[in-house]
Request: fold
Amino acid sequence: MAAVHTLCDSARAAAQGARQALGGSFAAISQWERELGQLRVLVNVGELAPGEREFPDDETYPVHEFPEIVGYLHEQWAGGGEPNAWVEVADGEPGGVPPAEGRYNHQRVAALRRRGRGCCVVAPIVLHGRAWGELYVARRAGEPVFRRADADFATVLAAVTAAGIAQTERLAEARLLAFTDALTGLANRRAVDMRLDEALELHRAEGVVVSLVVCDLNGLKRVNDSRGHAVGDRLLERFGSVLSLCGAMLPGTLAARLGGDEFCLLAVGPRSDEVVKVAGELCDRAGELDLGEGVAVGVASTGDPIGAVPSARRLFRLADAAQYRAKAAKSGEPVVAGRHGGADDPVVRLADSPEPPPGPERRRFRR
Reply:
């Protein structure tokens, strides 16, 4: 579990380990979705019955069919008790290992019979002091039935699983913080750099169009100086929402805040004309924001005649140069690199000049 990075992969590692440790033929990890009142199966491993898949999209079970999950997991351990596992068998009462409410669950027993399994052990997974889900391990019909020692061992395995899931969640949260702008919730510069490098590798290998839209929000300094930084932050948040909305018009596009009043869209796949159209929509919507003074937008796309793009740095230089031209001209429309003469385009010549334009762009050209 420590070697993987996603919840599903972590659940798979836990289910596979528990299946082997308990000598089961099948194992599953399910998560209790409280808001929907259902158990969602995250992963199935081992011998799958017809209709079962390793990572199911929609295998869910209403919690009311498994009342022991609600009653047992809350009433028995909420005051400090242990969330012990229990056994279900396909051919009658599981002698000596009753479920939480002293009876076996008819739905579970019916599922065992339907899928050709003889018994199962169910262990609650408790995370942060709350019921999170369950570990389920089954054996084939005709194999030895799980006993009390197996249930006790499953309880321990469920605790180990909970610890692994907690670690996965912490790492996911850390990764989210590392690649997210705290103010706007958009991606940050680190996320853009990684995604752009990957996108350009795809472009070189398969010719996929990669486009970068760089934006500079006008009027932020005036708002900060006259209304305070709290109001300026709200303007940044509102523009971030507009950027996210426009980015959603291009499937798979990354919307990001590069820092300060600078933002960008990174589109991988859409034609350059589609990207330019969305950039124009962005200009229009930004012009309608209260307090702001619109936005300067520059576009650079491998789908336009901008020459070779051997690195992310060159695409950034081109988009920055286009954005600089838009700002200098106080343009209400995006400026697109390469659309006015290819290599002789003023934007391309500006980007390829030894000295980049003045202002914030100079800092980014040095990456």
